[in-house]
Structure to design on (577 residues):
């Protein structure tokens, strides 16, 4: 099975967000970037499926700036066979043009399975996997917490509001991965050395006409300052009084 | 005139409340331009849900109703919905940002070849263009976008708009779904543990962190949540304790977990990493209990108690139980 894993380079989750001078993007000065946390589960699942089948290939792809080479190299070091960087300098927020550009590229390579993280933790869109699936004509299961492959059919489990769904999905498929699906491996020295010899391709992303424009990026209003009610268990009655009389939540 | 379409979510014959919230947003958008609101529902046995959509204020309801659609299939449903939307000259297509909405609407948007914004907290017209606001970076910033062309799709964050009411009934059209081929289809829906309040729907969230020292001590958190009475409070957890394997990921509050905004949030033994704050900063009232007076959680808490959680939390549980008993 030829597997494509879509990844994204995002600001680390402990980043304090500052708005850039254009009022439409973040100030990246001093910001640490990392592989989107959910994409780690997607990559790990791809490697496990290849191991299970004993054949096939794992290609990692991203749309982004040249800096994303670092995250792609890391994926190669963990065991992916090939990396593709579809380059653009703009902050990718427009889900429709992202899906269109990825679909255009995926159609040009052998692929029976696309794995993605459930969402990127910068734009928090959670729309790419099923958007992409529709453009490819693939089946799709999103936010998967458990996955099994038997005779070319996936059985996927996903949490919905107050319940868990069990879904059957044919191949070819797009599966988006949630935390808890697996325990991702890290690169070892051997993997890092091997990654240097693996194929690495760069070409311009075909994003097409944008479906939306960014008007502004702003910080939410700060919370009003709170207060320390007191120390230890003696402060509990004062807390109860504040919750009843001031906050009126009891 | 701008017609708005709402894709309604019906599970086991029940219209989900966030779909009525989407009707409210749709009515606001439509009334600004004298447009009509059409709701489209998929499934099997939709009569009651259709009536409810009409009572909510939808002008028209299209029910794609039949045994072939008894179980959710993102690909089959998206195809059937898109065929209907194409005849409605819609300016916008809305759906709630639920597990089903996140799966279905992006597919519909691709088939319509239009743009999409997800998890929106406000939608409106600005100079004739569809405009939406949505939280990004787990709520650390708010992004405002405008559509470059129509139609445009948007999923709406639940609990943002009030559910619609006060409609006078809709014109209902029934369509029988074709028994086509499903690429992906739901085989089984397993209900979560009985009596457990979903984290994102709870009125009170009580979360624990590393300050509890070991997994067994989460009983303190569970007892406090239980003291609020049945169905009121849910238990949450910090990323640190989820990664340590103390608690399941389904309980994680924060940037790689759930974003919650309950009326009351109680953080126990949680220092307040940015990652965590992103998941609960929009709670109406925040209480923090921590032994470290300099912990960042106190910077955003409305009320804080400094001290030993093993002493304070049982006392608080007792006090809450008293309040609940006399209510």
């Amino acid at each position: 099975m030829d597997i494509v894993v879509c990844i994204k380079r995002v600001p680390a989750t402990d980043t304090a967000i500052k708005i850039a001078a254009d009022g439409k993007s973040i100030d990246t000065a001093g910001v640490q970037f990392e592989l989107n946390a959910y994409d780690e589960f997607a990559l790990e699942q791809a490697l496990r499926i290849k191991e299970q089948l004993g054949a096939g290939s794992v290609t990692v792809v991203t749309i982004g700036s040249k800096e994303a080479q670092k995250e792609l190299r890391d994926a190669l070091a963990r065991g992916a066979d090939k990396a593709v960087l579809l380059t653009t300098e703009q902050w990718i927020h427009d889900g429709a043009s992202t899906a269109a550009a990825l679909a255009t590229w995926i159609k040009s390579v052998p692929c029976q399975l696309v794995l993605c993280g459930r969402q990127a933790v910068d734009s928090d869109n959670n729309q790419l996997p099923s958007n992409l699936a529709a453009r490819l004509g693939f089946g799709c299961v999103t936010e998967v917490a458990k996955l099994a492959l038997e005779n070319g059919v996936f059985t996927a489990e996903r949490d919905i509001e107050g319940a868990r769904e069990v879904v059957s999905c044919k191949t070819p498929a797009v599966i988006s991965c949630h935390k808890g699906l697996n325990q991702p491996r890290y690169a070892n020295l051997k993997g890092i050395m091997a990654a240097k010899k693996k194929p690495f391709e760069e070409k311009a992303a075909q994003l097409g006409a944008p479906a939306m424009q960014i008007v502004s990026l702003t910080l939410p209003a700060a919370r009003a300052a709170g207060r320390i009610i007191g120390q230890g268990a003696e402060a509990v009655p004062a807390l109860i009084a504040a919750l009843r009389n001031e906050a009126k939540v009891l | 005139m701008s017609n708005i379409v709402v894709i309604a979510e019906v599970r086991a014959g029940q219209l989900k409340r966030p779909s009525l919230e989407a009707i409210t947003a749709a009515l606001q958008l439509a009334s600004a331009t004298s447009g009509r609101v059409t709701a489209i529902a998929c499934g099997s046995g939709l009569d009651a849900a259709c009536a409810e959509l009409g009572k909510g204020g939808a002008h028209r309801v299209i029910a794609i109703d039949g045994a072939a659609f008894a179980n959710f299939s993102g690909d089959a449903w998206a195809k059937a919905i898109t065929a209907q939307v194409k005849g409605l000259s819609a300016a916008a297509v809305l759906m709630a940002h639920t597990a089903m909405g996140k799966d279905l609407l992006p597919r519909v948007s691709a088939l319509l070849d239009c743009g999409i914004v997800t998890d929106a907290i406000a939608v409106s017209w600005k100079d004739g263009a569809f405009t939406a606001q949505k939280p990004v970076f787990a709520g650390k910033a708010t992004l405002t976008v405008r559509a470059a062309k129509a139609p445009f799709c948007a999923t709406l964050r639940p609990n943002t708009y009030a559910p619609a009411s006060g409609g006078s009934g809709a014109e209902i059209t029934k369509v029988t779904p074709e028994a086509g081929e499903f690429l992906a289809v739901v085989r089984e829906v397993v209900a979560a543990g009985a009596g457990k309040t979903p984290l994102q729907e709870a009125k009170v969230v009580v979360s624990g962190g590393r300050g509890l020292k070991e997994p067994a001590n989460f009983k303190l958190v569970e007892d406090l949540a239980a003291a609020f009475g049945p169905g009121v409070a849910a238990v949450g957890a910090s990323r640190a304790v989820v990664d340590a394997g103390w608690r399941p990921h389904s309980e994680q509050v924060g940037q790689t977990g759930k974003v919650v905004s309950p009326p009351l949030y109680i953080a126990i033994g949680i220092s307040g990493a940015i990652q965590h704050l992103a998941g609960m900063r929009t709670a109406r009232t925040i209480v923090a209990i921590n032994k470290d007076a300099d912990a960042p959680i106190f910077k955003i808490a409305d009320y804080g108690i400094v001290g030993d959680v093993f002493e304070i939390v049982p006392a608080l549980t007792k006090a809450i139980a008293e309040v609940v008993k006399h209510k």
